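Pinned message: reference record for HTH cro/C1-type domain-containing protein
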Amino acid sequence: MKKKMNEESIYNKVYEYRVLARLSQQELADKVGVSKQTIFVMEKGNYVPSLLLAFRISNFFNTPLTEIFEYDLGGQINDE
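Predicted structure (tokens):
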């Protein structure tokens, strides 16, 4: 079996927090100063927010940054 490295990535729980707060993507976007599209692509995992935006989101939800955003260094996986 050949091994390869995964890339680093950031996972987020923005969708979960937004739904629990009963907010639309547009409402959250307005609260944190970005477009609805930014929230959409972030929730889909296709956009890593700036540190400033990540802090705005965590402050808005009054939740530690590391509860909403998780850093994955990557690791070894089997290539079958």
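Pinned by admin. Summary line: Strands lie at 2-5, 9-12, 69-72, 76-79.
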